[in-house]
Amino acid sequence: MTTTLGLPEPVRACLFDLDGVLTQTATVHAAAWKETFDAFLARRDGPGFRPFDAVADYDEYVDGRPRADGVRSFLASRGITLPEGDDDDPPESDTVHGIGNRKNTLVLQKIKEMGVDAYPGSVRYVHAARDAGLRRAVVSSSANCHDVLIAAGIDDLFEVRIDGVVAAERHLPGKPHPDTFLAAARELGVAASEAAVFEDALAGMEAGRAGNFGFVVGVDRVGQADALRRHGADTVVQDLAELLGGTA
Predict the structure, then answer these.
(1) Could you read off the pLDDT of 173-209 as tens digits, one per residue?
(2) Average pLDDT along the chain
(3) Smallest Cα–Cα separation from 67: which of 152, 140, 139?
(4) Which of 9, 143, 151, 197 has its CA 20 to 30 A from that of 22?
(5) Half-sphere exposure (CA, 13 Å, Cβ side) for 42?
(6) Residue 2: left (phi > 0), alpha (psi -120 to 50), or beta?
(7) How far is Cα 226 from Cα 24, in angstroms, rounded to an integer?
(8) What is residue 177's predicted lDDT score, i.e. its pLDDT?
(9) Which positions are annotated as active-site residues?
(10) How distant, in Å, are the alpha carbons of 37, 48, 50, 213 from that of 42?
(11) 151 CB contacts (<8 Å, ≥6 apart)?
């Protein structure tokens, strides 16, 4: 049985990813990753380097993961190992943290230049969830989550925010581990079985499945519906407004 929000009756809380689910920033992140990795690979391998694929590589190795995990994951796919470095490594350093910091510098520049837009259908859905009395949290790997929410004008719609900053402070492993989602559910006072996860990343699907959440909604912005289902989605939509019709 589903509610008018397309969720099973036991669900009392909604846990939303940020980039690609609430805000139109996933393409900005993908572009920043591509610029970062291509510059590194060009220095390392020369003109014949194999570039970072902003769709396939982004989806498989970095989307939804904490920044340093994304660096490690992609480099491992190319058989590359780098020193970890330190959190404050300069962006030009060829270390895991240096590359991650270069990506963050680029994404902040792009957000400043381009601004941040929320998906209208997602905003409608979150308003409907609030009106229906459902608890609401944002769960993001991004350390820039709070700034993005404010820039998009939707910060006031959520009661809890578990982002990259909070995860680092609490030593919570990021997606595909379920810990950040579980932390959000705890803060909202609900069991995992009473919470729905809304994610567009394959790592987020795995986190939802690993945490035994009551419902996992895959948001397909890039034509990967089958992959989202394989990785744990109970249902897949292209826009959250599709759920407002009362069916999942």
Answers:
(1) 999 999 999 999 999 999 999 999 999 999 999 999 9
(2) 93
(3) 140
(4) 9
(5) 9
(6) beta
(7) 22
(8) 95
(9) 17, 19
(10) 8, 8, 8, 42
(11) 111, 115, 116
Q: What pLDDT is recorded for position 29? A: 87
What average pLDDT does this structure show over 68-90?
A: 95
Q: Which residue has the tokens 């407004």?
A: 241
- Provide the residue ranges of all domains of the chain, joining segments of one domain with +: 13-25+117-245, 27-114
DSSP string of 106-175, one letter each residue: HHHHHHHHH---B-HHHHHHHHHHHHTT-EEEEE-S-TTHHHHHHHHT-GGG-SEEE-HHHHHHHT---T
Alpha-helical (H) ranges within 20-79 are 26-45, 56-57, 67-77
Which range of 28-32, 40-44, 143-147 scores highest in mean pLDDT? It is 40-44
Query: 58, 35 in Cβ contact below 8 A?
Result: no
Percent of the chain at pLDDT exceeding 70: 97
Tokens, residue 59: 């989806």
pTM of the predicted protein model: 0.81
Angle at 65 between CA 62 and CA 71, to 5 degrees: 50
> Residue 115 and residue 75: Cα distance in Å, rounded?
30
Checking if the pLDDT of 153 tops 70, the result is: yes
Question: DSSP label at 19?
Answer: B
Match domain 13-25+117-245 to its CATH number in 3.40.50.1000, 1.10.10.10, 3.90.1680.10, 3.40.470.10: 3.40.50.1000
CB neighbourhood size of 210 (10 A): 16
